[in-house]
Design goal:
By secondary structure, this protein is of the alpha/beta class. Helix content is 29%, strand content 26%. This is Zinc-binding dehydrogenase.
Length: 326
């Protein structure tokens, strides 16, 4: 089958079209003929060798296509073997495309439990863009932070898949959202999705400027932090607010004023992509609320995965980047 093959770790150009053997069926597993695969920053880290993937390797976590055995149109849930404990993943949990062949190919093999129906009205590109960011954002906002209608959310960042999904989810359930960005244009695009406003994190004192945009200027109920800037994020929280952390894009270490933290009665919640229970909750959320499909930034043919990675790494896009397989 045709695939994008990683034979060495490095820059985007190491992603090259090639031929690899078709996946072999076995009990409990299903082969999917892919129509689209979405990029995630996680794929960039796999390409760079951060997850020690075996070489040669086919990367890619997100995908949507047709089950080879039944002909059903499905999306792939890239969370493998989460386990029975909903509070945290099992020790053998992994993400599709880390150590097993992923979705940058014509075919992919996954456990049967990792398939869900393609949402009604979604294009193949939108369906492929949903699973990882949708699952991650759902778990962060609802399983972990318990965000409710009428509450306020600050999203650190405005243009990535998690950020755009968080804005649409929050606004869809009746919460309010504010974003941060390095670009006024991205703030305006987030406002078009429903965000109330935004601030430029490139400006000194952005956390105080953001806090002024919260209800009554008291601070936000929830801050979603994929950057790792905890000290600034806590400043934007109301007393008793919840800080949900799912990334370290800007910093891997975060000093905190401990006295200020406990006197503020804050909650610090770590989170990752979720499991099948979270994905079931995500599908219920989409069915019960007027939430738009994932925002698409740009599509590329499968063979141009290297160009797609370069575009993603440049950081100027808004929404998801998707590879189309036809």
């Amino acid at each position: 089958m045709r695939a994008v093959v990683l034979r060495e770790f490095g820059a985007a150009d190491v992603l090259r079209p090639g031929e690899v053997p078709d996946p072999v069926a076995e009990p409990g597993w299903v082969t999917v003929r892919l129509k689209a695969a979405a990029l995630n920053w996680h794929d960039v880290l796999v390409r760079r060798g951060q997850y020690g993937s075996p070489l040669p390797h086919v990367p890619g976590a997100d995908g949507a296509g047709i089950r080879a055995d039944t002909g059903e149109e499905v999306v792939i849930v890239p969370s493998l073997w989460w386990g029975a404990d909903e509070s945290a993943p099992a020790r053998n949990w992994e993400i599709l495309g880390d150590h097993r062949p992923g979705t940058y190919a014509e075919l992919v093999r996954v456990p049967a439990e990792c398939l869900a129906p393609r949402p009604a009205g979604y294009s193949w590109a939108q369906a492929a863009a949903l699973p990882l960011v949708g699952l991650t954002t759902y778990r962060a906002l609802f399983t972990r932070a318990r965000l409710r209608a009428g509450e306020s959310l600050l999203v650190l960042g405005a243009g990535g898949g998690i950020a755009t999904t968080a804005v649409t989810f929050a606004c869809g359930i009746g919460a309010s959202a504010v974003v941060t960005s390095s670009s006024r244009a991205k703030i305006e695009q987030a406002q078009a999705l429903g965000a109330k406003d935004g601030v430029l994190y490139t400006e000194t004192g952005w956390e105080q400027a953001a806090k002024k945009l919260s209800p009554g200027g008291r601070g936000f109920d929830v801050v979603l932090d994929s950057a790792g800037t905890w000290a600034e994020a806590l400043t934007a929280l109301r007393p008793g607010g919840r800080l949900v952390v799912l990334g370290a894009n800007a910093a891997e270490h975060a000093p905190i004023d401990v006295r200020r933290f406990y006197f503020g009665q804050y909650s610090l919640l770590g989170t990752t992509m979720g499991g099948p229970q979270d994905f079931a909750g995500l599908l219920r959320l989409l069915g019960e609320h007027p939430i738009a499909p994932p925002v698409l930034d740009r599509t590329f043919p499968l063979a141009e995965a290297a160009a797609a990675h370069r575009h993603l790494e440049q950081g100027g896009g808004f929404g998801k980047v998707v590879l189309l397989h036809d």
